[in-house]
Amino acid sequence: MLSKVLITTLALCSFMFGAECTERYGKGSLEIKLATGSPGELGLVKVLAEEFAKSNDITLCWIKAGSGESLSLLKNKDVDLIMVHAPKGEKEAVKEGWASDDRSLIGSNEFYITGPKNDPALIKDSTSVVEAYSRIAAKKALFYTRADNSGTHKKELEIWKKANITPEGNWYTINKDFMLATLKKADTTGAYFMTDSSTWVAAKKELKNQSILFRGDIFLVNTYNALKQNGLDTPQKNISAKFIDFVAKGEGQNIIRSFGKELYGEAIYNDAAYAKKYDR
Predict the structure, then answer these.
(1) Strand, helix or coil at 68?
(2) DSSP letter at 101?
(3) Out of 69, 206, 218, 219, which could bridge 65 as a Cys pair, Cβ 3.0 to 4.6 Å?
(4) Which of 175, 169, 158 shows the shortest CA–CA distance to 136?
(5) Helix %, strand %, coil % for the chain, to 5?
(6) Dihedral-angle region of residue 140 (phi above 0 means left; psi in -120 to 50 means alpha; beta otherwise)
(7) pLDDT along the chain (280 residues), means of 10
(8) Which neighbouring-strand residues pair with 111?
(9) Residues 6+ apart with CB under 8 A from 233
(10) Which residues pair with 124 in a beta bridge?
């Protein structure tokens, strides 16, 4: 009994810690909480929030969470808004009524299948991502899965399903770190991994052994949408709607389409106009 209580307590503490602000931007009197993964980790949220805060009396609390966890945080009313790439989950959230129905497309990137430069599974000449995954499984080449219900993990599982493969065995290794940390680990251990293009651009100068081995399948285009809580109007809900409108239009879109050029020599996200062609 004691061990069950302890496990439950630790789980609750872990969830509470996970909902803590990873960083805060702005110094306004009203705080809003936003959950997202890579856009926060790579610095896009910081730039968007600080620009928005110049004309709005807000502090934005960014909570680092993958798409699955972000959706759960929104459902439990632990955050005011989210930026996620999980179309099925997003639409279910709207249908079930706990996310407002003004789901807003904000941009996109794409997924790359990376791996060791010598490409032991020979995926480089694959004609589809399903074929690439099938070759990795046939070779039993080391592959990292984030296994964390993130948008990346959901996409990965869809690919295995399309390939009619249930991945299992020592080659299929769970690594629940976020995108950047897992990509770096794959680089040092000679593993295959599915990373988003934004993280790749941000990290590629640090990578010694990884190479992009497959890209270009339309199924790998990764669209981001912003959602906010549904329900009664509150100051947080109203300013969240204003922030989403800022991100989805005008100056926010200018920031998204140019973000990364100064740091990496190229933009790392596409804007909503580009993403619209692929949003499902």
Answers:
(1) helix
(2) S
(3) 69
(4) 169
(5) 45, 20, 30
(6) left
(7) 36 49 96 97 97 97 96 96 95 95 96 98 98 98 95 95 97 93 97 97 96 97 96 93 97 97 95 91
(8) 196
(9) none
(10) none
